[in-house]
Design goal:
Blueprint (H helix, E strand, L loop, with lengths): L1 E6 L5 E7 L2 E8 L5 H15 L9 E5 L5 H18 L3 E4 L1 H4 L11 E10 L2 E10 L2 E12 H9 L5 E5 L4 H10 L4 E4 L37 H9 L13
Protein name: tRNA (Adenosine(37)-N6)-threonylcarbamoyltransferase complex dimerization subunit type 1 TsaB
Keywords: Acyltransferase, Transferase
Enzyme class: transferase
Length: 245
Protein backbone atom coordinates (compact mmCIF):
# COMPACT_ATOMS: atom_id res chain seq x y z
CA UNK A 1 0.00 0.00 0.00
CA UNK A 2 1.30 3.45 -0.94
CA UNK A 3 0.46 6.41 1.30
CA UNK A 4 1.05 10.09 0.58
CA UNK A 5 1.28 12.05 3.84
CA UNK A 6 1.16 15.85 4.05
CA UNK A 7 1.69 18.49 6.72
CA UNK A 8 1.80 22.28 6.36
CA UNK A 9 0.16 23.17 9.66
CA UNK A 10 3.07 25.28 10.87
CA UNK A 11 6.44 26.58 9.62
CA UNK A 12 7.77 23.09 8.71
CA UNK A 13 6.56 21.48 5.50
CA UNK A 14 6.65 17.69 5.39
CA UNK A 15 5.65 15.39 2.53
CA UNK A 16 6.30 11.66 2.43
CA UNK A 17 5.55 8.62 0.35
CA UNK A 18 5.18 5.53 2.53
CA UNK A 19 5.19 1.95 1.25
CA UNK A 20 3.25 -0.05 3.83
CA UNK A 21 4.96 1.14 7.04
CA UNK A 22 8.26 2.16 5.45
CA UNK A 23 8.86 5.76 4.31
CA UNK A 24 10.58 5.60 0.93
CA UNK A 25 10.75 9.33 0.14
CA UNK A 26 10.38 12.44 2.28
CA UNK A 27 10.69 16.17 1.62
CA UNK A 28 11.26 18.24 4.75
CA UNK A 29 11.70 21.99 5.16
CA UNK A 30 11.76 24.10 8.30
CA UNK A 31 11.94 27.65 7.04
CA UNK A 32 9.20 30.25 6.77
CA UNK A 33 8.06 29.88 3.16
CA UNK A 34 4.75 30.11 1.37
CA UNK A 35 3.39 26.57 1.56
CA UNK A 36 0.81 27.40 -1.11
CA UNK A 37 3.62 27.61 -3.68
CA UNK A 38 5.93 24.92 -2.27
CA UNK A 39 3.56 22.06 -1.40
CA UNK A 40 2.75 20.84 -4.92
CA UNK A 41 6.40 20.90 -6.07
CA UNK A 42 7.31 19.00 -2.88
CA UNK A 43 4.65 16.37 -3.64
CA UNK A 44 5.95 16.04 -7.19
CA UNK A 45 9.53 15.67 -5.98
CA UNK A 46 8.60 13.08 -3.35
CA UNK A 47 6.74 11.02 -5.94
CA UNK A 48 9.72 11.16 -8.29
CA UNK A 49 12.11 10.10 -5.53
CA UNK A 50 9.80 7.20 -4.71
CA UNK A 51 9.66 6.31 -8.42
CA UNK A 52 5.88 6.32 -8.43
CA UNK A 53 2.98 8.51 -9.58
CA UNK A 54 0.05 10.20 -7.91
CA UNK A 55 -2.28 7.72 -9.61
CA UNK A 56 -0.53 4.87 -7.78
CA UNK A 57 -1.17 6.32 -4.33
CA UNK A 58 -3.65 4.16 -2.39
CA UNK A 59 -4.53 6.60 0.37
CA UNK A 60 -3.78 10.09 1.69
CA UNK A 61 -2.98 11.24 5.22
CA UNK A 62 -3.12 14.89 6.25
CA UNK A 63 -2.75 16.87 9.46
CA UNK A 64 -6.03 18.57 10.32
CA UNK A 65 -4.71 21.17 12.74
CA UNK A 66 -4.37 23.00 14.98
CA UNK A 67 -1.71 25.35 13.69
CA UNK A 68 -1.39 28.27 11.34
CA UNK A 69 -4.81 29.16 9.90
CA UNK A 70 -3.47 29.44 6.37
CA UNK A 71 -1.01 26.58 6.69
CA UNK A 72 -3.61 24.08 7.88
CA UNK A 73 -5.98 25.01 5.05
CA UNK A 74 -3.32 24.48 2.38
CA UNK A 75 -2.60 20.83 3.17
CA UNK A 76 -6.23 19.99 4.00
CA UNK A 77 -7.56 21.51 0.77
CA UNK A 78 -4.84 19.81 -1.30
CA UNK A 79 -5.46 16.43 0.31
CA UNK A 80 -9.23 16.72 -0.10
CA UNK A 81 -8.84 17.62 -3.77
CA UNK A 82 -6.47 14.74 -4.48
CA UNK A 83 -8.61 12.22 -2.59
CA UNK A 84 -11.77 13.35 -4.38
CA UNK A 85 -10.16 13.47 -7.83
CA UNK A 86 -8.56 10.03 -7.51
CA UNK A 87 -11.41 8.48 -5.49
CA UNK A 88 -8.98 7.36 -2.78
CA UNK A 89 -9.48 7.35 1.01
CA UNK A 90 -8.30 10.25 3.13
CA UNK A 91 -7.25 10.02 6.77
CA UNK A 92 -7.04 13.13 8.97
CA UNK A 93 -4.78 13.26 12.04
CA UNK A 94 -4.00 15.83 14.71
CA UNK A 95 -1.10 18.18 14.00
CA UNK A 96 -0.18 17.88 17.67
CA UNK A 97 -0.22 14.09 17.62
CA UNK A 98 2.07 14.31 14.57
CA UNK A 99 4.71 15.96 16.77
CA UNK A 100 4.78 12.96 19.12
CA UNK A 101 5.83 10.28 16.61
CA UNK A 102 9.59 10.63 17.24
CA UNK A 103 8.79 9.44 20.77
CA UNK A 104 6.91 6.27 19.79
CA UNK A 105 9.28 4.23 21.96
CA UNK A 106 8.64 6.34 25.05
CA UNK A 107 7.64 4.43 28.16
CA UNK A 108 4.29 4.60 29.90
CA UNK A 109 5.94 6.70 32.60
CA UNK A 110 6.53 9.49 30.09
CA UNK A 111 4.00 12.02 28.85
CA UNK A 112 4.65 13.76 25.53
CA UNK A 113 3.39 17.35 25.45
CA UNK A 114 3.43 18.71 21.86
CA UNK A 115 3.54 22.49 21.52
CA UNK A 116 2.74 24.73 18.55
CA UNK A 117 3.33 28.42 19.12
CA UNK A 118 0.04 30.32 18.82
CA UNK A 119 1.60 33.72 19.65
CA UNK A 120 0.89 36.07 22.54
CA UNK A 121 2.51 33.60 24.97
CA UNK A 122 -0.05 30.92 24.08
CA UNK A 123 0.25 27.48 22.49
CA UNK A 124 -1.78 24.74 20.90
CA UNK A 125 -1.00 21.71 23.01
CA UNK A 126 -2.06 18.23 24.04
CA UNK A 127 -0.98 15.41 26.36
CA UNK A 128 -0.10 12.05 24.82
CA UNK A 129 1.28 8.68 25.86
CA UNK A 130 2.85 6.01 23.67
CA UNK A 131 2.66 2.33 24.56
CA UNK A 132 3.58 -0.59 22.29
CA UNK A 133 3.63 1.65 19.18
CA UNK A 134 0.17 2.99 19.98
CA UNK A 135 -0.54 6.55 21.03
CA UNK A 136 -3.40 7.72 23.20
CA UNK A 137 -4.49 11.22 24.13
CA UNK A 138 -4.40 11.81 27.87
CA UNK A 139 -6.52 14.91 27.28
CA UNK A 140 -7.94 16.58 24.15
CA UNK A 141 -5.93 19.07 22.10
CA UNK A 142 -6.42 22.55 23.49
CA UNK A 143 -5.37 26.21 23.24
CA UNK A 144 -3.68 27.40 26.46
CA UNK A 145 -1.38 30.06 27.78
CA UNK A 146 2.14 29.04 28.77
CA UNK A 147 1.20 29.47 32.43
CA UNK A 148 -1.85 27.21 32.03
CA UNK A 149 0.32 24.56 30.37
CA UNK A 150 2.71 24.66 33.32
CA UNK A 151 -0.21 24.21 35.72
CA UNK A 152 -1.53 21.23 33.72
CA UNK A 153 1.91 19.57 33.61
CA UNK A 154 2.33 20.00 37.38
CA UNK A 155 -0.94 18.12 37.84
CA UNK A 156 0.35 15.08 35.94
CA UNK A 157 1.17 12.02 37.99
CA UNK A 158 4.12 11.25 35.72
CA UNK A 159 7.43 12.90 36.56
CA UNK A 160 8.96 12.40 33.10
CA UNK A 161 7.67 14.93 30.57
CA UNK A 162 8.77 15.44 26.97
CA UNK A 163 8.07 18.79 25.31
CA UNK A 164 7.80 18.22 21.56
CA UNK A 165 7.80 21.02 19.01
CA UNK A 166 9.97 23.91 17.92
CA UNK A 167 10.55 26.26 20.86
CA UNK A 168 12.69 29.36 21.09
CA UNK A 169 15.51 29.41 23.62
CA UNK A 170 13.46 31.83 25.73
CA UNK A 171 10.45 29.48 25.71
CA UNK A 172 12.63 26.52 26.65
CA UNK A 173 14.10 28.45 29.56
CA UNK A 174 10.63 29.46 30.74
CA UNK A 175 9.43 25.86 30.94
CA UNK A 176 12.65 24.65 32.58
CA UNK A 177 12.40 27.28 35.31
CA UNK A 178 8.65 26.79 35.76
CA UNK A 179 8.91 23.00 36.08
CA UNK A 180 11.92 22.33 38.35
CA UNK A 181 10.37 19.22 39.92
CA UNK A 182 9.69 17.44 36.62
CA UNK A 183 12.23 15.41 34.65
CA UNK A 184 11.89 17.58 31.57
CA UNK A 185 13.16 16.58 28.15
CA UNK A 186 12.86 19.11 25.31
CA UNK A 187 12.90 17.93 21.71
CA UNK A 188 15.49 19.28 19.30
CA UNK A 189 16.44 18.81 15.66
CA UNK A 190 14.17 16.54 13.63
CA UNK A 191 12.56 15.28 16.85
CA UNK A 192 11.00 18.74 17.22
CA UNK A 193 9.34 18.62 13.78
CA UNK A 194 6.39 16.74 12.29
CA UNK A 195 7.81 14.01 10.04
CA UNK A 196 5.29 12.85 7.45
CA UNK A 197 7.17 9.58 7.04
CA UNK A 198 5.95 8.61 10.53
CA UNK A 199 2.28 9.50 10.05
CA UNK A 200 1.28 5.87 9.40
CA UNK A 201 1.86 5.31 13.12
CA UNK A 202 -1.15 7.53 13.83
CA UNK A 203 -3.60 6.19 11.27
CA UNK A 204 -6.61 4.27 12.56
CA UNK A 205 -10.04 3.63 11.11
CA UNK A 206 -11.40 6.40 13.31
CA UNK A 207 -9.27 8.83 11.28
CA UNK A 208 -10.96 7.90 8.00
CA UNK A 209 -12.81 10.86 6.50
CA UNK A 210 -16.27 9.62 5.52
CA UNK A 211 -17.46 12.91 4.00
CA UNK A 212 -14.83 14.98 2.20
CA UNK A 213 -17.17 17.95 1.81
CA UNK A 214 -17.75 18.11 5.55
CA UNK A 215 -14.06 18.00 6.49
CA UNK A 216 -12.82 21.32 7.91
CA UNK A 217 -9.61 22.17 9.77
CA UNK A 218 -9.47 21.99 13.53
CA UNK A 219 -8.42 25.51 14.47
CA UNK A 220 -9.18 25.22 18.23
CA UNK A 221 -9.93 28.95 18.34
CA UNK A 222 -11.84 31.42 16.14
CA UNK A 223 -10.05 32.78 13.09
CA UNK A 224 -8.94 36.41 13.37
CA UNK A 225 -11.74 37.47 11.02
CA UNK A 226 -14.33 35.69 13.18
CA UNK A 227 -12.89 37.16 16.39
CA UNK A 228 -12.96 40.68 14.95
CA UNK A 229 -16.50 40.24 13.64
CA UNK A 230 -17.78 38.95 16.98
CA UNK A 231 -16.01 41.76 18.82
CA UNK A 232 -17.80 44.28 16.62
CA UNK A 233 -21.12 42.40 16.96
CA UNK A 234 -21.25 41.19 20.60
CA UNK A 235 -25.00 40.47 20.45
CA UNK A 236 -24.80 38.27 17.35
CA UNK A 237 -25.40 34.52 17.69
CA UNK A 238 -22.16 32.52 18.03
CA UNK A 239 -22.05 31.07 14.53
CA UNK A 240 -19.16 30.57 12.12
CA UNK A 241 -19.14 33.54 9.75
CA UNK A 242 -16.02 32.61 7.84
CA UNK A 243 -15.88 29.78 5.34
CA UNK A 244 -12.99 27.69 6.70
CA UNK A 245 -11.96 25.70 3.64
Amino acid sequence: MLTLALDTSNIPLSVAVIADQQPIAQIQTACAKNHSTTLMPAIDQALKLAQTSIQSIDRFVVTLGPGSYTGVRIAVTTAKTLAWTLAKPLYAISSLAALTTPWALATQEQVVVPLIDARRDCFFTGFYQWQQSHVSAVRPDVYLSAAQIVTAIKQLAQEKVILAGSLTSEQEEFFRQALPTKQLQIASGLAAQPLAGNFNLLVAETNLVSDLNALVPNYLRPTEAEANWLKAHPDAPKTNYVEEV
